[in-house]
User: Which sequence fits this backbone?
């Protein structure tokens, strides 16, 4: 098993009456609500938490890209990852990821990801999400029906740029470059491992299988509701006669660990409520622009979580969220049992652990993180023993002897 400590970096200062006064946390939220002086401390506290996660033994530390919102303060996850290259030495840097359809030209992604891989000594995992409708269609103005076509072309350009040893011309529909010449090139060859975050688009299954990418299902509705979609993915794996390595798949889960089940509700209940009632308060009209989701996907019923279960969030209690496994919470033993059920039922080898939740203060974040690392994670490590020693396709391959950080100071 591989465990990534994943940070959304939400804005922790939204008022109690946020839902009543604002229709959405995304796209049209007035940016006067953001206070840069407070933001300075927020960013550094969040970076400290990611570094702490490496120190207590997580395999990866994760960041992602979102725009015009208070749900996640990382319009450029590459800046965060670059900062982390200087303060970490072991954990994979899981950038999940760059919304490649938004870059003009997408060669920029190839260059910046290559820089991150070199800076980190070969520790980059590159994520290529299509991006939410809020980000791609509304905040950045991409035409919904063209988003996936632009994405496919951007993917082709990036992979060719990494592979080529000589400059070449690229003549796409959306990008035309006389000279494609990626300097630097990544340490990991032919490319860093690539994760594809998905929220239900069935076409993503074949894309991952065609390219030997890991499919990462990101959901806040928990693993019980994810089972049908993940069964569809593994059915497609079987139809394509691909091997069933659990590392072909990953899942994101909100997790809260305390000494007892009762203490978990007391410590984390208010912060979980903040997350589900403010950070996920998205106007449904922004969540699924016409043309963004393909007909094939709509026919399966795999719609955006922001237009489905999101409507129920305001009415859900701690009991609702935990019993329905939206949130895995409780004592180390309770969390261990539920995480094992998650891993086995979804057949996933990668877990993206959301241990910072909403406006959770630093001491609680570290308490939950430490308990998970010390009392839960070791019991889950070897749930897929038949794959542990011979499947390295979906994880980083760092340099054997990266340059020590102290060299720069001498």
Assistant:
């Amino acid at each position: 098993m591989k465990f990534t400590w994943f940070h959304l970096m939400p804005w922790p200062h939204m008022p109690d009456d946020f839902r009543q006064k604002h229709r959405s946390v995304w796209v049209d939220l007035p940016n006067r609500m953001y206070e840069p002086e407070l933001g300075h401390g927020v960013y550094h506290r969040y970076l400290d938490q990611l570094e702490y996660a490496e120190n207590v033994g997580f395999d990866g530390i994760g960041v992602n890209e979102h725009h015009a919102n208070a749900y996640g303060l990382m319009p450029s996850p590459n800046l965060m990852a670059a900062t982390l290259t200087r303060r970490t030495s072991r954990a994979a840097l899981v950038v999940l990821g760059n919304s490649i359809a938004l870059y003009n030209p997408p060669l920029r992604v190839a260059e910046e990801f290559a820089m991150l891989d070199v800076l980190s000594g070969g520790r980059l995992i590159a994520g290529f999400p299509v991006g939410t409708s809020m980000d791609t269609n509304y905040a950045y103005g991409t035409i919904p029906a063209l988003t996936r076509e632009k994405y496919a072309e951007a993917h082709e350009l990036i992979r060719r740029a990494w592979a080529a040893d000589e400059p070449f011309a690229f003549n796409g529909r959306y990008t035309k470059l006389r000279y494609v010449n990626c300097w630097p090139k990544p340490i990991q060859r032919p490319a860093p491992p690539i994760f594809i975050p998905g929220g239900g688009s069935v076409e993503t299954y074949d894309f991952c299988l065609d390219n030997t990418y890991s499919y990462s299902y990101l959901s806040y509705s928990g693993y019980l509701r994810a089972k049908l979609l993940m069964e569809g993915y593994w059915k497609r794996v079987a139809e394509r006669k691909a091997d069933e390595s659990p590392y072909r798949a990953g899942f994101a889960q909100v997790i809260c660990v305390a000494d007892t089940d009762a203490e978990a509700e007391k410590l984390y209940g208010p912060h979980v409520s903040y997350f589900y009632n403010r950070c996920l308060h998205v106007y449904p009209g922004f969540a699924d622009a016409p043309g963004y989701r393909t007909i094939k996907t709509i026919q399966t019923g795999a719609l955006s979580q922001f237009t489905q279960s999101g409507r129920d969030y305001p009415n859900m209690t701690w009991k609702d969220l935990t019993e329905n496994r939206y949130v895995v919470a409780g004592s180390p033993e309770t969390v261990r049992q539920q995480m094992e059920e998650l891993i086995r039922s979804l057949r996933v080898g990668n877990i993206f652990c959301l241990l910072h939740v909403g406006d959770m203060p630093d001491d609680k974040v570290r308490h939950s993180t430490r308990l998970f690392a010390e009392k839960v994670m070791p019991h889950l490590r070897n749930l897929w023993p038949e794959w542990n020693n011979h499947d390295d396709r979906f994880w980083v391959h760092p340099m054997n002897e990266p340059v020590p950080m102290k060299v720069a100071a001498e």
